[in-house]
Amino acid sequence: MNNPVNKLLSAYGESLYLNTNKKLNKYLITSKFKKWYAGILPVEFLTLSVKDIVEILVTINESGEFYKTFPNNIHTPNYGDKWGRLANYIEINNRAIAEMCGSRTKNGIISSIKLLPAIPPSAKSWANCVILSQIFPNIYGDGYNKGPYEENSIYGIKLNAGYSQNIINFDIQLSPEEQFSAFNNLAHIHGLKTGFRTVISADQIKIANPNEDDVLFNWSNEEHQELFIEEHVKLVKLGFEAIFIDSAKHIGGYDMGNYTGVGALPEYGQMQYILHEIRLRSGCTTLSFVGEKSTDDFERYKNLGLTTGTAFVPPDNYDRVKCWSMKFKYNKDYAPGVEVSNDNDEGGRRYEDRLHHINISLFAYEYPSDKLPSFMQMEDLFPLRYDTNTHHLMMINPSYSSDGTPESHWENLFTKDDGREYNLKVAELFKHALNL
User: DSSP secondary structure string, 94-132?
Assistant: First the structure.
C-alpha cells in the first residue's frame, strides 16, 4: 500500500481507494487492449485532479484488471534489454506545461502525470518512451516564468542542487525522488517507457556549492565527472530508462564546425566510461542512450555506447526510410533514427507534413522488427499556439495566462479546435500501428 503513487495521493489529501473513472470517455481510443484519449485539448486533462488521473490510468490499463488501490508491483513494459533500438521517443516539455501561478512556475511533474492518458501506449512490437525536457534546475530564473522574449534556457543546468523548482511540487509532503517514482509508476501502468534530457556542454553546466558561488563545470575535474555520473545514476534508479544527450554528435571533438553548444565536451573514451558507469552503477541493463544527431558515423556512436541517434534519415520519404530500416535490420544494438521534429523546431510546419512524418516513422519498414527508432516533440501530438514553437519554449519560459491562473495558461498554450482535430488524426495513425 505504501508505493509512490499512494504516497502521492496521500500528499494531496486523497483516499487511496480507487473507482472506475469514465469522466472523459467520449475521447477514449481503443486498439484491442491498448487505450488512451485523443481528439483532446491538453487543458482538459491538466485541469483534472491527481486522483482523477490515477483512476483513469488504472481504468484503462491494458491488463483489463481494475485495481481498487494502486498496485505495489508495477513494472516497466518489457521489450528486452535492447528496447531503445526500436522505440518512439516523445519529448514532453514539462516546464512549458507546469503550473504558471502569477510569476511562479511549479509542479511540472504533476502536469506531466496528468498528460499521460493522452499519450499513446507502447505497441505490440516496440515501446513509446516519454522524454522529459527538464529535471535539473536551470541556471537562470529557475522557478519563475518571464516575458515572451527574455531568455530562461533549459539548456543551462545546475548540478548538486537537487531538482528544478519548475518541476517538483515543493508544497506537498513528498520528496522529489518519490514524485519522480510516482510519475514513472503511472507511465509504466499506461504502457510507456520514460527518460529525460541532459546536457554535456561544460559552460552550460554549473555546480552548486552551499554558501559559495556556483562553479563552472569542468570535464578535466574528476570530482565534476563523478558528480555528473552520480546525478544521472540517481534518476535511473528512480525508474527512468532513457537519457537523451544534447550535442552528443560532437563528443570527442567530432565535427566541431557545426557545434552550437557552449564550452568543452567530454573526450570520446571519457564518455564511453561515463555511459558504462551509469549503466553499471544503476544496475539498469535496459538503459537506452539517445544521442542528438549522433548518426553519420554509425560505428563511432555504437562503440561509444549509444543506442540510437537523431536526424540522419529524412522523415519525408517512405522508400528511403524503409531502405535504411532494411540496412539495419540485423543490428539490434544501434540504429539511426527518423526525426518527426526536434527541440530546435521553430514551428511553421503544416499539420499535413507533421502527419506525413509520423506516418513514415511508424510504418516505413518491411517487418515491425525492422523498424527504425523515431523522435517527436510535444507539438507533434499537441499543436502549440501559432506565435510560439518548440525551440522558443526551450529557450524561454513565458506564461500565456490572461488572468494569472494555470488554467488560463494551459488553455492558451495550445491551439484549439484545429489542434483537437489534428490530435485525433495522430491517434488514428498510432491506432493502426499499436498491434503490429
Answer: TTTTSEEETTEEE-HHHHHHHHGGGS----SSS-EEEEE
